[in-house]
Amino acid sequence: MGLILQNITVSGKIICTTEGAGIAAPPGPTVVAPVASFTKSTGTGDVPFGVTFTDTSTNTPTSWLWDFGDGINSTAQNPVHTYSVAGTYNVTLTATNSAGSNTSAAQVVVASVIVVAGGLWTCGYNGHGELGDGTTTPKSSPVQVGTLTNWTQVACGYRHTAALR
To answer: Is the pTM of this model over 0.70?
Structure first.
């Protein structure tokens, strides 16, 4: 860009001459920080439990950091993660671009059913390990719920039950 001289006139007479740097380019598009969000293939399952996570963040993130709540992280946009231990996991996604970052969170619940010496055992989670006799079992506390020769109903969380034999 070159210098531009501009004359300012009043009543036909030049009263001032100014110099400028020329015409400025219009500003580029504004980058806005992402709003992190995601979906998961399902929220509850038995060990080993594979979950597909799908990024649904807005405002064009350029990088992703997933924390699966079990000590494992990923920088993939749409990762698949397998949980190998029963428990409740808080999953977070941090989406980032040049304007900033934002984090979203959700829970994944992984249960286990264990067969030991002819008996069936289960672990509760989130205070919802209701056994067939109406009792409950706390998170990660194995409880025998039956034998291999009989069926026992076990509630598997809010409005979910399983019949075990």
So the answer is: no
